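Standup notes
- DV: blocked on the single-chain target, sequence here:
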Amino acid sequence: MDFYEAVQRRLSVRSYKPDPIPEDVLTRILEAGRIAPSAKNYQPWKFIVVKDPAVRQALVPACKNQGSVGQAPVVICACCVLDQAWKGMGGYWSAEAVDITIALEHMMLAAAAEGLGTCWIGAFLEAEVRKVLAIPEGVKPIALTPLGYPAVEAKPRSRKPLAEIVCYDRYA
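- DV (later): unblocked, structure below
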């Protein structure tokens, strides 16, 4: 599959088969996150790979009852190690969310290329996710994704046309 096909195939999947993900496939997906760019190449990330069914089920209420979190055979929680993030983005803010987002999206594209589904989970209760996954102070969960073989075919959602979101040479 070429890159543009993977981009087109990356859709939000909310229903998963229980089939396990082969370790070599999971490793390739995690490697895609590992090699992602980050501000100053600080790589301020930690990825929690959740396979234990009981832990995945405990994440469901922490993720505002999104059942796919408990249904997928793997959940990845992408976290930022705060003291490792570059604090000079734009001259005034931390790169933590940007860095982790890039890495997780690399993983989600890799998953699509492997025939797996994902879904960006940004709606979660931070304190509950921290508790379930034993995330220490100084580490911030940024987003999660279930990871697995889709149980049903995901449908693309509409997107704004390029003319509405792109301008040239200056903001217009």
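- Follow-up: The domain at 3-165 is CATH 3.40.109.10 (NADH Oxidase).
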